[in-house]
Amino acid sequence: MAAKSIISRPVYGTLSPQPGKHHLFIADAEGALAISDMAAKAPAGFFDGAEIDFIPGPDNKHVATLKALKPAQFHLAPSFASLLPRLKQTLGNAHMGLRLYLAGTEGLIGQAMQVALEAGIDHTSIQTEHRGSLARRMQCVHCKGITENVTTQPAACSHCGLLLLVRDHYSRRLAAFQGVCINAEDRSEIPPIEEAFP
Amino acid sequence: MSTGTTKLDVVVSDVVPVNELVTCFHFRRRDGELLPTFSGGAHVVVEMRDGDRTRLNPYSLMGSPLDTREYTISVRRDDVGRGGSLFMHRSVKPGLEMVISYPVNLFSLDLRAKKHLMLAGGIGITPFMAQTAQLAGEGGNFELHYTCRTASLGTYADVLRERYDRRIRLYHDDRDERIDLDRLLSTQPLGTHLYVCGPAGMINWVRDRAAALGWPSEAVHFEHFAAPQPGLPFDVTLAVSGKTIRVDEQQSLLEAIEAAGVDPPYLCRGGVCGQCETNVISYDGKFIHNDHWLSEEDHRSGCKIMPCVSRFEGRSLVLER
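^ Those are the sequences you sent over. The predicted structure of the assembly is below.
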């Protein structure tokens, strides 16, 4: 569970069934369990109008659990990038009344929310639940490159190589935490690198 | 204290009857300068000095926000109300000097919306006059569904149809025309925001259906100025200022507090903005809550009241004011 800090740091809740007939779930890895936990509280027939798009973790677990919920549509994707065109098309054709549920890693929740915001969904109306890794998507504020799956503090930018302090300062527009050079005065000064976002 | 309600000295520049119930009033600044800019959905509070009584009623601005040479409001005559609308209809003539508040917007457009779906009932059309003008100037995507009792009471329906053609849909009660609300709400593209202004029953109906059909509350906007209702007179003790006052039949609690020389904050005077929320210290009797601000729990608990629109019946009421 992510700790609370500055106001821009996203806070996640617990998925709960919303009113309406159309429900779109986007989840990765352990996020599947947030959906199956919520299903226990959902009214009968809830998944008749639901689509689940799932990106399994490396162990390929939980696929059967989600299929057992019998959603109207079930779609497996190997990565978020491969899911993106489908997600954009689904949201582009959707009507008001579609509710969005995001569950899993912060990177997945953030990137799916970024697409949803562009489609006109208010971020406060999206159900989110964080499960699994705390790894962060980070933007280097110096070269603007995005580094995925950052688990250490500080962390090296995968584009320009600067050593960055991974801040709690988050951008919904970029779906990334901000990374700021930690040793700008003296690049030879290397602070200890710790596993901060397991 | 009247938070945010800096005053404007204006003169009535025109009075135009629109139909048998509605009259349109135009205001210009007395010093000839431009009026403050506003956005579609804003209202002003008009001070009506009627002998030794002063009424303060909110009205939506209905002119184009692109033109601030004058403000226009429309007033529907209410023969059984507390007399504000009758005063406007009978006593306000071109050339009269009046005082109005700066505009305040509690019903603004969410300009992030991909589309704006507007539902108006009766005189609830007025804020949409300004909002449609604002959106049309920006090339915005909107659609307005307007329900009125009869064609002749469809205030500004002709103007709107001429300006925006098929973007305006009219429904006449006397022809038994009804909005197919569920269908309308279920066929809107993602990113649509819904705006509703009209009688309380219509607002509740639309909000309930929208919620049931999965519309998030962030995308549903509504405005309903509850005119203060007349009622039985009652006595109130103002604990902070150490005064005991009587609220007359035709007076609102807020007006009675102001008449006693106490100056509580206010903004909309219609039970929606929350500025005049007042703590109840003790009471023996029952509240008649008419606001849209407090939660149902607040209403039940008896610990808060909105003096702009709500009343009290009973033996004693002590307010923290």
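Chain B has three domains: 7-105, 115-223, 234-319. Chain B is about 20% helix and 35% strand.

Shout if you want it in another format.
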